[in-house]
Specification:
The chain is mainly alpha-helical. The chain has one domain (about 1-75). Helix content is about 80%, strand content about 0%. It has helices at about 1-65, 65-75. The model has no long low-confidence stretch (mean pLDDT about 85).
Length: about 90
């Protein structure tokens, strides 16, 4: 009779271990899935920021050229070279 109870105790222990490790496996899978989802979101953010950085670098290179600086000064500040005449369109006012 004592031997019979010991066999049941081992079965309960094995069932408990199986349930416990199944729970751990499920929990790990859920955590891993959440991390993969976060990784995808962060990769998209990184791609967006890299594209934005490339655009800003392009604009910085473009803005540093003498021709661009002159065109901005001409349009915004009404800058004129010697001998040039400024024509103002009365309809735009």
């Amino acid at each position: 009779m004592k031997l019979f109870k010991q066999k049941h105790l081992w079965i309960y222990a094995l069932v408990f271990m199986f349930v416990y490790f199944s729970f751990l496996h499920y929990k790990t899978f859920v955590d891993y899935s959440a991390l993969k989802k976060d990784e995808k979101v962060y990769q998209e953010k990184i791609s967006y920021e890299l594209a934005k950085q490339e655009e800003l670098n392009y604009l910085d290179e473009k803005a540093s050229s003498q021709k661009t600086v002159e065109s901005i000064a001409r349009s915004s500040l009404n800058y004129l070279k010697e001998g040039e005449i400024l024509f103002v369109d009365s309809e735009k006012r």
